[in-house]
From TrEMBL:
The chain crosses the membrane at residues 78-100. Belongs to the band 7/mec-2 family. Its main location: membrane. It comes from Daphnia pulex. The keyword Transcription regulation does not apply. Keywords: Membrane, Transmembrane, Transmembrane helix. Residues 102-261 form the Band domain. SUPFAM superfamilies: Band 7/SPFH domain. GO terms for cellular component: plasma membrane. Pfam families: Band_7 (PF01145). This is Band 7 domain-containing protein. GO terms for molecular function: ion channel inhibitor activity.
Amino acid sequence: MFALELASAPVTSSFSDRFGGGSAANGDEAGSSIPPEFRSKYSTSFADYPQPLSDPVRTRIWGPPVVRGSAADPGGPGICAFILTLFSFLLILATFPLSLCFSVKVVQEYERAVIFRLGRLLKGGARGPGIFFIVPCIDTYRKIDLRTVSFDVPPQEILSRDSVTVAVDAVVYYRVHNPTIAVSNVENFSHSTRLLAATTLRNVLGTKNLAEVLSERETISHTMQSSLDEATDPWGVKVERVEIKDVRLPVQLQRAMAAEAEAAREARAKVIAAEGEQKASHALREAAEIISESPGALQLRYLQTLNTISAEKNSTIIFPLPIDILKHFIKPDKKDKK
């Protein structure tokens, strides 16, 4: 029988070797007794062929498969865990209803509880909000607040790209979006996030000039938020916002910048004053040309000036004489006679 011959052959070699199909000389003669569909299906060794576990031939040769993760797995809970769990439940039943005070727990709407049973994370993820039950002797739990938390990054002495030392502090807003990861993947997610924020602030501002630090705060905040969010995602933390709070410059640099700004303001003031004088002179010239063309306009201007003077409380009023009256008393020059 073909099944008996297959069972007597070692399982580490292929069917072609056992039935003469390994060489080109006797491959066709010896392998002719094997059905074509069987030959195409089992042309490789059993060790390399990923055949289903329900195949009767494979089961007959190798025996029943071993499923990993079963109770025989040394990584799974053993008999001691089972005994402790059974003892804990019996203790709860023996002390009922007093045991309810230790078994029933409540978490708020903004909280979640991560439960560990004998050191292993309990299936089902975080519990809450509301009431949940624990086994006092073998269960431990930790509450995680899901609300947004803000903290101040301490002032960091940073050397900018143009070799200027500045002190910069910031504010970071974050929240926990996965309580299970926040407990199991990092020891203290809050402390780790604070340290990472300070380091990221130094790294980002170290690539900027002083002018960029002072003028591009929104860009720097967005860059920091993206970097922190990517780094804290394996911790179950979501960084929502980062804001640059204050930029402190050295005293000497502040004085130099103040002097530069004052000089720039004075220069702009002088330019504005010169432009105003220029416009005023053009306006006066145009007004003089208009008044010189019309004698009546000059007389009206004279009367307006007298009205302005008389409106004020002055004890002395000066009446200027028209130049035309004085022409009769002025002797003509010799050049005029000629």
